[in-house]
Amino acid sequence: MKKKNIRLTLRRCVFAGELCLLLIVISAQPCFAQDERAIEVTELGNLQNYYATRDPHYARIVAQLPSLQSALNDLKVAAGQSCSSPIEIALRRTTSAIQSSEQPQYGLIRALVTIPGEDDENRLAKVLACVTDLSSGRLQSLTQNIQEEFDLIDLAAAKNKAKAALRKVVEEKQAAGSCEGIDLEQAGLKVRSIRISDPFAFLPWVKARQRRAADQITALIKDKPFTYTDASGKALDIIENENFLPDTSDARVKLRVEIVSVANCTDGGVDLIYGIYSTQIMPVLSARPEARVKERETPQTAAGQTTVETKDASPFHFTPNAGYDFTNLLSGGARFEYTPRRFFGLPFKSAVIKGEASSRMHNISGALEGTYDSDVEAPGWLAHASWLLNFSHYSLPTGAGNIKGGHLIAHFSGVSKPLAGGNLSLRFGAAVDGGNRQTEAGSLILPPNTVLNAGFGTVKLYGAVDSRFAHNIFSATHALELGSVGPAARIDWRKHIVDARHQFWYSFGNHHLLDLESHFTAGRLQIPGRVPLPERFFGGNNEEFLIGSDDWEIRANPVIRAIPGSKFFQTTDGAGGKDFFSYNFTAAYGIWRQTLVPEELTTDDDFKSELDGAITTVTSTLQNYYSSKDPHYQNVVSQLPPAQTAMTDLKTVVTNAQAARADQFADLFKACTRAVNVGLRRMNQAINPTAGDQYSSIASVLDPDDSDLLKVKTACERDLNGALQDETLRAATTRVETLRQALTAEFNQIDQAKSEKKASADMAFTRRSLNTLFKDVNIYSISPVFVFDVARIGSRSGSIGGTRYGPGAGVRLELATTAHFTLGYAFNVKRGPGEGRGNLFFAIGIRDLFY
Fold first, then answer.
1. Would you place residue 319 in the very low, low, confident or very high pLDDT band (cuts 50, 70, 90)?
2. Nearest C-alpha neighbor of 616 from the set 468, 752, 764, 775
3. Per-residue pLDDT tens for 244-288?
4. Which one of 2.60.40, 1.20.140, 3.30.9, 1.20.1070 gives the CATH number of domain 631-750?
């Protein structure tokens, strides 16, 4: 297979004041690229040359080559330096021809003679033209004989034989089904079928666009003779017009890779496959930090394949889930979200209902959610905010009784604009919560200052830091809960939570991903009054969150997968702990996988080089965008119309001066008029840029190394007016030059260093995200899993409370990074009363499959 043809196209667009950069990479397999036709022509030419060497007249030419070499050597001595160059070249061609054979020899001989109508080297004729004053009769005779013999070679017959031989090779390849090396158009193949492949086709709107594009391409080329124009050019235009990337209201970096390949060149037909790999990377200034985790776990989300505003996207989101352990048994549920374009004039964007239940437990909630994302250039430090009203009700088994509750919560959360070059964000949140806590005591022992059933009210506050570096994500949160029993303005309990997470991943080899996850949580409960029993700490395989409705999840209980449900709760005081810590470690290594982006691209040095160069270009464009927000740039824009007027006035002055002087100084007037016209045209483009990139147009006008306005000064003032000495012309050119200097001075005050820093910081996130997509993300993977948990609950006495250890192992299957299945078993090494030897845990997650 020959080298691939890679073409990159960049476009820039602006949505609501934000920057959108589009990168399209089209990589066609070599047996399908347009330049392959040139390769086929070359192969045909080589065969034709071979059959030409079989002609008897060619053999007579070869026989004369030694005599020609001798004649050129003699002439070289006689000519000296006067014609050394043409003689030396002809001599090298002749010597090489003597030493070569077949096609190489034919090409060298062809360089010595001429073929009418073609661009030939004709080296012998050039030697004869140079040595007209020397005795060259011998060379003239040899040249004439060689030319006559070459003219008698039956090139038409050689070409026919070459076509027949090439046709035979094509037929043999077709019989074997191979398309390699076949010019599909010359071979006369018909398009048998077409297929579009997109790893995100499981999303309904992508599937709909894929179907529409396939129907159009089918109508265009199916059952018709193959042509490169239709099958490659027009078909790719259809795919690009369908825009497999959804329309969005925010600025994104967009990447589309299109691979056109062929298969099954048999029975006069060929199958075409159009591979589409498209993604969008959310801007770092408006992306929530938790989305950085999702770019690997749910690439369709991080890639912008779920946050859409397009007619193909449904406002309904349905996400089922399931799980199993020894206490909860088999549970199932779903999350249903409704996201209309307008939410009845209310400050919300969506309504969410979610729930999970088994024969022993249930957890249901309903919520209204609203969000805000700041513009890229908006002042202030806030990047994202959300607010929510949520009602929930739950019942969780402990093995000795059930803890229940229902409550209404209102909360607000926010995230700062990124710090430390885009690697760090700060988060905060507050929630007001009220409802009731109820307990089915069973055999539970009630601790002191604890009530089974009570109304309550709480205020919850938290602050967090979230960071991402290469192959690492780290977050840490500190939260405080203040609560009271009943509707009282007092503090009956205080709860402190510290929650920290770390994730590390690295690809060994090609997409064999090692994934290490660590999660540490600690909590302390202080009870100056009374507290409902469910507010104490209950641990096990169940995971509880301080604010269950918040996207920023703060774990609020000891989690250990070796103990099912919420069975880790016994302390010296009774049921539920007053303090705890837990540490959970999970390691997975993807052994079997299929990559999201084709390996032929991820391992191709040319593609990687082109992509890196394109991102550098995008960074430069983004820098221009930030520079265009500088106040000095706005001053430059405001000064362009006066400069345009001055140029127009100068043009009028030059026209009048030329009319008054008839044919005098025609060349100088022509040069000045041309400089004015070019400068005026560039000025008009700067004021009304056709491509939308005004900054680049202005920079081009004012470029000190190639300024069209400087050329006006040179051509009109220095050259033309130097001859005319016209005061009106001097005044007009002086005005243009004065305005040019003012524009240049103002333009040079733009803080380019600041713009470069901001562009580099934004594109650093894009580079990392692309690196993740190309190196880490798989359509499916199978991984062995190792887990190790440590959890402690207090107070303790002997085997009551204390520390538990939970090593275990399992296997994880991910399909299209949409559905993942994890099955494992963790051992309870230091078990307490009624806790069991371990726990079989199984979880199913499906991410926006039915969209």
1. confident
2. 764
3. 555 444 444 566 667 787 888 877 888 888 877 665 554 433 333
4. 1.20.140
Q: Which amino acid is at 365?
A: S
Q: Give me Rg for the CA atoms of the chain.
A: 39
Task: Please identify which residue in the block is written with the tokens 């989305």.
Answer: 291
Question: Is residue 167 very low, low, confident or very high in pLDDT (cuts 50, 70, 90)?
Answer: low
Mean pLDDT within 678-704: 80
Query: Residue 110 has which token pair?
Result: 């062809």
Nearest to 472 by CA among 501, 504, 500: 504
Cβ burial of 222 (10 Å; 0-12, 13-18, 19+) is middle
User: Are 406 and 426 in contact, with CB atoms under 8 Å apart?
Assistant: no
Residue 778: strand, helix, or coil: strand
Mean pLDDT of 606-627: 78
The pTM for the full model equals 0.57
Asked: is 314-596+777-846 a CATH 1.10.530.10 domain? The reply is no
> What confidence tier does 449 reach under pLDDT thresholds 50, 70, 90?
very high
- Read off the DSSP letter of residue 225: B
Please check whether residue 545 is in contact with residue 539, taking contact to mean a CB–CB distance below 8 angstroms. Answer: no
How high is the mean pLDDT of the chain?
A: 79
Distances (CA, A) of 97 to 110, 111, 444, 480, 700: 10, 10, 102, 90, 53
> Using CA atoms, how far apart are residues 851 and 849, in angstroms rounded to an integer?
6
Please list the helix, strand and coil fractions of the chain in percent, rounded to the nearest 5, in that order: 35, 35, 30
Contact 843, 787 (CB under 8 A): no
pLDDT digits (tens, 9 = 90+) for 492-508: 999 999 999 998 888 77
Bond before 795 cis per omega within 30 degrees: yes
Question: CA-CA distance, 181 to 39, in Å (whole number)?
Answer: 8
Nearest to 57 by CA among 150, 141, 119: 150
pLDDT score of 694: 81
Write down the pLDDT at residue 303.
35
How far apart (Å, rounded) are the C-alpha atoms in residues 810 and 785?
Answer: 5
Q: How far is CA 581 from CA 72, 182, 340, in A?
A: 95, 67, 42
Count CB atoms within 10 A of the CB of residue 8.
15
Beta-bridged to residue 583, according to DSSP, are: 520, 790
Cα–Cα dist 540/397, whole Å: 11
Q: Which band of pLDDT confidence, cut at 50, 70 and 90, is reported for residue 581?
A: very high
The pLDDT value given to residue 101:
74
pLDDT of 610 above 60: yes
Residue 465: which pLDDT band, with cuts at 50, 70 and 90? very high
Find out whether 790 and 827 touch, Cβ atoms under 8 Å.
Answer: no
Angle of helix 605-627 relative to helix 694-701, nearest 10 degrees, comes to 80
| Helix-then-strand count for the chain, H and E | 21, 24
Residues with Cβ within 8 Å of residue 355, at least 6 apart in sequence:
333, 334, 362, 363, 364, 365
Listed in sequence order, the DSSP H helices in 470-576 are none
Q: Are strands 493-508 and 512-526 parallel, antiparallel or unpaired?
A: antiparallel
How many CB atoms are closer than 10 A to CB 755? 21
Distance of CA 508 to the CA centre of its chain: 21
Are residues 618 and 23 in contact, defined by beta-carbon separation less than 8 angstroms? yes
Q: Identify the helix (H) or strand (E) that includes residue 279.
A: strand 269-281
CA nearest to 766, candidates 99, 284, 150: 284
What is the DSSP pairing of strand 450-451 with strand 454-469? unpaired
CA atoms of 21 and 8, how far apart (whole Å): 13
| Alpha-helical regions (H) of 136-228 | 137-152, 155-176, 204-221, 228
